[in-house]
């Protein structure tokens, strides 16, 4: 199958290798690129002392750039969405890492069962589900925006090359923002409409909400919000 990956380049390369190992042909079309602010992350860590939360592996990549500045904080409890992000944090040296298997709301419940004060290392733009869950549970928290997902506008030649190489079988969507970016590009939206039957595979229900109504019949949602479950839909 020819599968289009819409993740940022750093993550997309890993996904592409997984797809090749499964016998598929990956095509990469990054629609966002991360811009890190390690200074903001370092300042937030230095001014707090409690638990840390991350909802994306991108925040862990920001932390990896801190080097020795991170060492005094590795004993702090860290809560993550998804085992992949949790494992990335463990690889950095964090010694007490817990992960939720669902979305931001699930992570808020996990945090609420253990602590009362929290530093959230966040990106922008982002869903508000984690913060809303923390407020509902009465958990004190501060937010440090340590990375920004900057849009990338694909050019006409790049889009043409994807669809000219043969029939596209599926598109992988990992975030609602990326799906909105994708369908905001006229050429991509028209190409999917013209090539009927292309499967639109979404990491979660929230992501699927960004699929246009006319194409919802082609959408499928991963049983669990992780890449293994998403790729199982192929």
What order do the helices and strands come in, and which of them pair?
Blueprint: E1 2-5, H1 9-21, E2 25-28, E3 32-36, H2 38-46, E4 51-54, H3 57-64, E5 78-81, H4 83-92, E6 97-100, H5 104-112, E7 117-124, H6 129-137, E8 140-151, H7 156-164, E9 170-173, H8 176-183, H9 186-194, E10 199-202, H10 205-208, E11 219-221, H11 227-231
Parallel strand pairs: 1-2, 1-9, 4-5, 4-7, 5-6, 7-8, 9-10, 10-11
Antiparallel strand pairs: 3-8
Task: Please tell me about this protein's structure.
By secondary structure, the protein is of the alpha/beta class. The protein has two domains: 2-31 and 152-232, Rossmann fold, CATH 3.40.50.10090; 34-150, Rossmann fold (3-Layer(aba) Sandwich), CATH 3.40.50.10090. The chain is built from eleven helices and eleven strands. It has helices at 9-21, 38-46, 57-64, 83-92, 104-112, 129-137, 156-164, 176-183, 186-194, 205-208, 227-231; strands spanning 2-5, 25-28, 32-36, 51-54, 78-81, 97-100, 117-124, 140-151, 170-173, 199-202, 219-221. Helix 3 (57-64) runs parallel beside helix 4 (83-92) and helix 5 packs parallel to helix 6. The longest helix is centred in the N-terminal third of the chain and has 13 residues, at 9-21.
């Amino acid at each position: 199958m020819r599968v289009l990956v819409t993740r940022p380049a750093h993550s997309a390369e890993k996904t592409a290798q997984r797809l090749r190992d499964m016998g598929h042909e990956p095509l990469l079309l990054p629609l966002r690129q991360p811009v890190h602010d390690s200074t903001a992350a370092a300042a937030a860590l230095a001014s707090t002392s409690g638990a840390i939360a991350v909802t994306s592996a991108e925040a862990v990549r920001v932390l990896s750039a801190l080097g020795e500045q991170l060492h005094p904080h590795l004993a702090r409890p860290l809560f993550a969405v998804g085992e992949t992000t949790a494992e990335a944090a463990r690889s950095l040296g964090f010694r007490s890492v817990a992960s939720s298997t669902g979305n931001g709301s699930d992570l808020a419940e996990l945090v609420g069962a253990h602590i009362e004060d929290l530093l959230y290392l966040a990106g922008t733009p982002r869903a508000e589900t984690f913060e809303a869950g923390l407020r509902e549970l009465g958990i004190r928290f501060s937010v440090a925006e340590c990375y920004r997902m900057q849009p990338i506008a694909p050019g006409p030649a790049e889009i043409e090359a994807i669809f000219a190489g043969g029939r596209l079988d599926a598109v992988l969507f990992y975030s609602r923002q990326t799906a909105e970016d994708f369908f905001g590009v006229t050429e991509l939206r028209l190409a999917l409409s013209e090539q009927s039957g292309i499967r639109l595979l979404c990491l979660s229900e929230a992501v699927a909400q960004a699929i246009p109504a006319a194409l919802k019949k082609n959408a499928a949602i991963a049983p669990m919000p992780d890449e293994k479950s998403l790729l199982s839909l192929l």
